[in-house]
Amino acid sequence: LTGKAEGYTRQQVTDLLEMHGGTVVDSIRKGVDCLLAGEKSGSKVDKAKEMDIEVLDVNEMVDELVNFKSN
Fold first, then answer.
1. Are 44 and 2 in contact (CB under 8 A)?
2. Strands (E), the chain
């Protein structure tokens, strides 16, 4: 998880991901499935791409999880 999610704190996004079975780690490394990137993501996106780790938009993922939760 890197960068800013629109309308959510980092802790709120982490809690939401963990509630749906995700694991949030502090660094990009082997074994990471994907990187959720928001505004001002920085160098983690570049490192993820170099390691062939999928980069997803954090706002889209949060929207999906919030909608899933409410259904």
1. yes
2. 34-37, 54-57
Q: Are 34 and 54 in contact (CB under 8 A)?
A: yes
Q: State how far the Cα of 36 lies from the Cα of 34, in Å rounded to an integer.
A: 7
Helices (H), 1-71: 10-19, 43-50, 58-70
pTM: 0.85
> For 1-54, how does the pLDDT look when each residue is reduced to its tens digit (9 = 90+)?
999 999 999 999 999 999 999 999 989 999 999 999 999 888 999 999 999 999
Element (H, E) at 61: helix 58-70
